Amino acid sequence: MPENQNDEQTMTATLNSEPAKTRIRPWGTVTILEEAERYRINRIEVKPGHHISTQMHYHRSEHWVVVSGTAKVICDGKETLLKQKESTYVPMSMPHRVENPGVIPLVMIEVQNGEYLGEDDIIRFGDDTEN
């Protein structure tokens, strides 16, 4: 077996053997699929009729892709409805929130990118009670 092929198999086995980290929130779940120094990929599930808190980040941007359900995205005060296979970009320092106005769970893939991805870079606005 060529050396490169063996390395690819080892890397795949290592990635697949790591358990995903899921955080449970009142509005749904966040599962970290992959992360490195300047990016993190999350699977976000929002329960029907629920939303994440309005928030912003100084050190990262986000890209959301809807896998299933409907997302009502509010970014800098502008509302947009996204359906399956649609996406949006949330720039740094932009207040944003996502809601699930539908009757089935909203599932999104979120790609965070930036110099700092720590939880203390989440600035929450006091307009709602869900985290």
TrEMBL record:
CDD domains: cupin_PMI_typeII_C (cd02213). It comes from the Bacteria. InterPro entries: Man6P_isomerase-2_C, Mannose-6P_isomerase_type2, RmlC-like_jellyroll, RmlC_Cupin_sf. The keyword Isomerase applies. Keywords: Isomerase. GO terms for molecular function: isomerase activity; mannose-1-phosphate guanylyltransferase (GTP) activity. Residues 22-127 form the Mannose-6-phosphate isomerase type II C-terminal domain. The keyword Iron does not apply. One of its GO terms (biological process) is GDP-mannose biosynthetic process. Pfam families: MannoseP_isomer. This is Phosphomannose isomerase type II C-terminal cupin domain. It comes from Aerosakkonema funiforme FACHB-1375.
